[in-house]
Every structure is written in structure tokens, then in C-alpha cells.
Amino acid sequence: MPTGIESVCCTEMDDISTKANDENVDCITQHPGFAVNCLEPWVLKLAAAEFIQEVGPLGDDEPVHEYVPIEVQ
Q1: CA 9 to CA 18: how far, in whole Å?
Q2: Is the pLDDT assigned to residue 29 strictly greater than 70?
């Protein structure tokens, strides 16, 4: 990944690390709900449709990818 902010490990983020620890896994990708909620195409399509319904479609003048800094703890 090109920048340090984009290559944060899940174990470095308290909320995610807590959820992984609750399931006794070393990485959030090993959590039983990860694949079905984050990698399943139909779930992603539904999430995109819900986003468009609640927020509206992105206009041609809006950036598709926008840098949003996250707090690393």
C-alpha cells in the first residue's frame, strides 16, 4: 500500500481488535462474519443501493475516492 495510513493492521485499531479478540481470532479477516459481510458480492450490491438511497448518487463533479484520515491508536 502506498502510504502508512492505508496499511494499518486491524490489531492496531481498538474496536476491530476487540471484536477479533471476542471471537478468539488473530485477524479480523478470520472472524466468521467477515467473508459473508465484506466479500459477498450481493451484500456489497445491497450496501451500495442503500447508500445511494440514503445519500444519493455521486455527481460527476464529486470525487469517487476521497482521502479521509483515520485516527490510529
Answers
A1: 13
A2: yes
List the chain domain ranges.
10-55
Q: Give the pTM.
A: 0.51
Q: Which residue has the cell 469517487?
A: 64
Q: Which three cell numbers stand for residue 30?
A: 478470520
| Cβ atoms within 10 Å of 19's Cβ, excluding its own | 16
14, 72 contact by CB (below 8 A) = no
How many Å apart are CA 35 and CA 28, to the nearest integer? 10
| Degrees to nearest 5, angle at CA 68 with 1 and 34 | 65
Give the pLDDT mean for 5-16. 80
pLDDT at 1: 46
